[in-house]
Amino acid sequence: GLLQSNQASCGCKCQRQARLRVLVCWASIQFASCEAIIAKERMAQAQLDVQRMRISYADEQSIRDYGADLFRAMDRDGSGGLSHSEVKKAANKDANVKTDLKMDYSSWSQFWAALDPASAGIITQPMLQDYLVLRYKQQLQAGTVEGISQFVQTKSSSPQLTAAEEMIRQYAIQLFGRLDKDNSGSLTHSEVRKAADRDANVKKQLKMDYPHWRQFWDALDT
Questions:
Q1: Which of 71, 132, 181, 211 is a Cys-bridge partner for 125, taking CB atoms 3.0 to 4.6 Å apart?
Q2: Which of 175, 164, 204 is nearest to 65 (CA)?
Q3: Residue 55 contacts residue 136 (beta carbons within 8 Å)
Q4: Is 0.70 topped by the overall pTM?
Q5: Rounded to whole angstroms, how far apart are CA atoms 217 and 219?
């Protein structure tokens, strides 16, 4: 009888220990899960704080102008949209483009997640501008830049052309070559107008969003 009593007591003790181990394991899983949720919420809050960070209107406008120039430089066909492939080709072709795009990510997937968060597949000018504004805020918060002059390459801070300016220059040279049919080295207003009237793509490539020809000539032939 004593043996049976000891065996029963031992069995109950083993069961209690087993239940305790299960309880400890369950608590550990719950704690780890809570930590993961808290970390995720903190990250989301940090990203929201960056997005809400206020910068001056002048600084934001400088970044948006910078983004517009960069977009036009990469949008060779004047379609108004850039595929991931077009952006990647431009960046791989010219290391300065990576600098201009603030591509300090460890992988392309991280870059696309920042530039194209909705996975649209086509990058528009406003998307690129919004991305650059967010990158500036992130770098300000991280302390990697102290002001707009360190973020946006301007002619006053660098005597050389930025990657965007050089791409625009090459784009203009190619466009001029296509319009200069007689290889005279110059274009009359008539030649430009005929080319634009004949091919709607020429208007896009010339960024002719003016309501009247006179305004276009004022801008082109100052």
A1: 71
A2: 164
A3: yes
A4: no
A5: 5
